[in-house]
Amino acid sequence: MNPLLTRLQPYPFERLRQLFSTVTPNPALRHISLGLGEPKHATPAFIAQAMIDAIVSTPSGLASYPATAGEPQLRAAFTDWLKLRYGLNVNPVTQVLPVNGSREALFALTQTMVDPGPGGPQRNPDQTPVVVCPNPFYQIYEGAALLAGAEPYFVNADPERNFAPDWDRVPEAVWARTQLLMVCSPGNPTGAVMALSEWKKLFDLSERHGFVIASDECYSEIYFRDEPPLGGLQAAAQLGRPDFKNLIALTSLSKRSNVPGMRSGFVAGDAAIMKQFLLYRTYHGSAMSPVVQAASIAAWQDEQHVIENRALYRSKFAQVTPLLAEVLDVALPDAGFYLWAKVKGHDTDFARELFTLYNVTVLPGTYLAREAQGANPGAQRIRMALVADSAECVEAAQRIVQFVKSRT
């Protein structure tokens, strides 16, 4: 058995299940979950129809193994979208690859990039490769690093700087061992968007130390400002790095198009890295189904449903955020579909009592972060996923307001 498996921590939702295992929620109220970041808006009918049409019109497609690199039409859909969204000219042959959702890609990319070196888990700690991650973070970053034989290093978000990780506090000795840097913009759970100045700092560090940057951008199409979030490849182009050296951006249809069950996305960036990533994926057996490719092409080629989806979130957040701001330290994020609120007392106590008395699930912030630099940046915070319809989210907010008032 791989001994590195013993280093994995329970996923946040398993910890939540354990937290709630000894309590019974109020039976007079229907359950409302703001815990899981799973899109609940309706999947656009044309995407499902594209999948059906692909099965009906080309049934032989299911009788053949798909190419790991994807069909040329799919890769062209990726690069056309990158041109439309970011104004980028990306090579569809050498600089993009389909992936089965961003989680799969983040894990696989880490296995491709990390060189564990000699000695395995018993090596000298000073020789262990490092994967730097924001803190709080998406837990796949940590798990992927550990299973690749690397050590995750967590960089705490600074609430005084819009939850930007404080990269300046990372010691030079850590950067020297860093092989991969994970960034998430818009961030999960904070919703913060990285500015061009932050990208410049990271590109300079990458140039100096040679590490790769993986930019997780799966929330990029749900935003609340007039200007869409800056993407990693876009930042590179603006800073005179059109070859995207040591940079890979990852995106997905799950949030953009409300198709989490399709497991479809793509990665784009440095052609030299993409060549090695394709080699890894060929052995990994992670080719995308032909019918999913057909539906993905249809989704990436249409922006109207994305605009409509974004409008639903904007309306919902406009209703919910002011309600919660009456009793919690919370504000409209830059982007994403989470509210990251500060609460009084311990976040796990808050979540358990809210579930027990008002049958609403929220995720404790400490479950989304690790103790680092003497603090857990998720402490006294909760994440609320506003993924259900507006009426349900408003009702949940109203219950939370009642709950908080009852505690004071």
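(the above was protein one; protein two follows)
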Amino acid sequence: MVQVKEILTKALKKLVYDPLKIILKSRRGTFGLIIVLFFTLMATVGPLIVRYDPSTVNLSEALQPPSLKHPLGTDWFGRDILAMLIIGSQDVLFVSFVTALITTSVATFIGILSGYMGGKVDSALVAVTDIVLTIPGFPLLIVIASVLRTSNPILLAAILSITAWAPLSRAIRSQTLSLREREFVEMAKCLGMPSIHIIFSEILPNIMPYIIINGIFAFTGAIYAQVGLFMLGLAPYKSQNWGVMLNLAVNYAGAVFSIRQASLLAPAICIILLQVGLVFLSGSLEEVFNPRLRSG
């Protein structure tokens, strides 16, 4: 029992305490962590507290300025802008997370398999990756989204990641090609270790930090892509999203500049803040994974 407790303590220190200590040493890292935690709580706990129905229309309270009742005011349908931001964050973060997960998983699988196996397998996978790289990503998303018109978050995430995996796959392949020539991989082969063991125990742990950092970048790219689709009206409005708020602000605000400004700025500032937080956090995570980048 004592040994189990010591093992858990060491694991907690290595996986949580030490990385958190490195992140908090940096102002950028601390700022990024606070922002990411804030939006995470907004998307997970916020909807449980607000319990707001975005479909509710109350024209008697339309276009209200900021007040104690409505801190960010109301839109032209009398809906509370702050409540819509909180409800909309749930879809934005969930779809972006699933997109990043699909993108990094596909890129890791194809990149490692291509780099480690070599030969015809490598040639075939490289050819597929090169073809995907030549396809313009966002125009393809526009075509697919306009045809499917889906609001299913999983399917939308799959659409967003349809071409996003290719650049990361090429980068992971390059690193795998380098790692498979290292002494510890050659020794594992000499000992008769199976390929699955070599991939998951020798190669994957060495490139996992790179995958995590690029997973954060995939997350930020997914935010821009999905908000862009909703902003252009290429996804159904029944799915609450910051992009829907931007689209409606542009189309319905009319000449009421002050209200239009509030409706546009609220989701736009949230998107900018979340992007800044993720970029700052990724910079600190590089120091966590690469000791040579640490100062002092």
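Reviewer note on protein two: The chain has twelve helices and no strands.
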